[in-house]
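## Example record

The block below lists the input lines for one assembly entry, exactly as stored, with component labels intact.
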Amino acid sequence: MRAPIFSFDPGFADARMLERLRKGEEEALAELYEQNRTLVLSYVTRNGGTTDDSEDLLQEAVIVLWERVRAEKFEPTAKLSTFLYSIVKHKWSRRAEQLRRNVRQSEETFEISDGDAIADELLIDAEQKAAIVNAMDKLDDPCKRLLLLFYWEERTTDEIARMMGFANADTVKSKKYQCKKSLEKLLKELL
Amino acid sequence: MIHHWTENEDLLDRFTLSRVDVAMRAELEKHLLDCEACTLKVEEHRKTVGAIRAFGRLDAKSRLKATIDAHNRTRQNVKWILRVAAVFVVVVGLGVSYKFWMSTPAKQTGPSETSMASKPEMQNQVEADVRKSERDVQSQQGSGPGESKSIQSAQAATPSDQHLLATDEKKSGRGADQITFAAPSAQSGAGAGVLNTPIPVGPPSELLEKKAAKNIKEDIRLEPDQIWVEGVVLAGIASEPEIARERLNNMPSGQRESQALQKDARGDVHSLKNFEVLQLYRREVVQGKPKYTATTNSVRTLVDRSDERVKLYLDMVPELSEAEARNARVEQVSTDSIVVTVRGMRFGYRIPSGSPTKSAK
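Predicted structure tokens for the full assembly:
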């Protein structure tokens, strides 16, 4: 068999990328980032931001997209680049607005989907962010992993049982409940 | 109505993660309106889930950042390696050029002991050149400028000069007026007699084209994920876009808009849209003039879809180098159509849709 002359992504680019995101391939995130870096950099710097701002925003946008794809809440009505661009624009306008209001606290947005629309956006300031990281780091590794698999990656209990070697889904549910209670306790202490 | 549904952990999770349908959500929310404790429980749960997801997002972001940084570092390293390699090539190139220049009688400014010792013939030649230059000056003073070099050759004063010139003429296979070793002069120009490399002109050799044709017809056994795909030439004038434009303008509109067909290995025929079909013109130089000949509007290539990425074997481009392949531009023009631009030529392909790993079985 001859050697391939070159390879390319022939036009299923977005579909293939979505499939990879669904599978949880983190390398795909970096590719998505690289593909959109120039576009976002151009937008952010044109609107008074820096290279660091653009990198930060695009990373956040890529994570938002990943989150939605995994949760099956992403409808590919537009190209992925368009979606990312709109997220960046939205986030940048919010940041710019905060700067105008002289809000100095570093801000992280957190979104919980409500039906088809983003309903709740929990604003987490730097202090809260540190407390959350602290609380999560205080959990033992299996607990932390289980909670992330269930609530962040939105895996099913059956999947988690297979991934973490639990006997069955019921064991996962029981362990999840205990872990969540531990976290609630830690968060109450720290927040 | 579910009585204090918030006691149900599964339902609480599904509600918080928006995994309930609209009707169910309405019902659950209705209960929350009448149950303050339930509302508080939901809020608390939502905050905990929010914290976990915020942590997940921060964690994912830091991992993404690490991957991007690693990529950037690799890219920087590659850039540095390329820069160092480029400097090395330039230095070596300069060294070789200098050595070459120094060993060239026409350019030599001073004798090199090493080269002289190893090449006595060259030393004699240089001496002859110096004497010849002196005679040139004398003859120009005597008979005036414009005297031909063949005359200068005939006037070689010493037997060794005559021998050298005769040897050179034999070597070059040219007449005495085609100087191969001569002292610098306005007529010979810089480097005359040094480089005798023919400059390739005209169309690609027939051999290459035959080879390419052979590749296309080669009967290879297709792997399960491989198919032959017929493409169309959209514009095939290497480095002659203006000719392409002119030919296009002169082409009947029906021909310009003609629809190409493509076949896959199983013989299915699909209409190929989104392409403007042009002819491929081969450039030949006939009696010193370029001639353009229409050749084909169809190219066949092998598509391999056995892994994540589709691989295209560009057989229609003779001896495509790896660098050219890397610089090839691929544009997506519709969901299943691409245009490949390589070596100044544009080719359109419609890749049959379907999962790459499940196709053509």
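The first helix of chain A runs from residue 13 to 23. Residues 1-11, 103-123 of chain A have pLDDT under 50 and may be disordered.
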